[in-house]
Amino acid sequence: MIEMKVAGIVLNAASRSPMILLKDSLERRALPIFIGQDQADAIIKALEGNRPSRPLTHDLVAHIFDDCDIKLEKVIIHSLTDDIFYAVLCIESHGVKKEIDCRPSDAVAIALRTDSPIWVLEEVIADASIPVDRDADDAERQAFKQFVSSLSPETLIKKGGYKEKH
Prior knowledge:
Pfam family, one: BFN_dom
CATH topology: Bifunctional nuclease domain
Number of domains: 1
GO molecular function, one term: nuclease activity
Protein name: Bifunctional nuclease family protein
């Protein structure tokens, strides 16, 4: 799993629909997730530190967690099926841990309000992320190709990477 941060809310150029934009810590990969306007507004409010006079739904959930001694340990965006992302809230209360199914947009909105980390499975990032720094990706790919092309069976045997069984 890779921890990601909310980079912001962006609009899809073609559809004008809002998307959460998550980035990894090195800002090498970005994961755009389409969301509804209400969730976009809720996430923007949390990013700006805007606290409404009356709690909105995500604020209410965060207050319930706090008042009932429930800790949101992390959010995990764990799969992508038919262009739909799936997430869980990983909570702990009185020594009991549970995972609660949740839309990624709601999970992110709650995570921002509880200062909880957002994790994404590598498979999801591989399937749906976009490169932010193509030059760094290309340089890393070239370095790996050079490394692999320089390997020989003799080198692996000398380094202990291969041992024959008798």
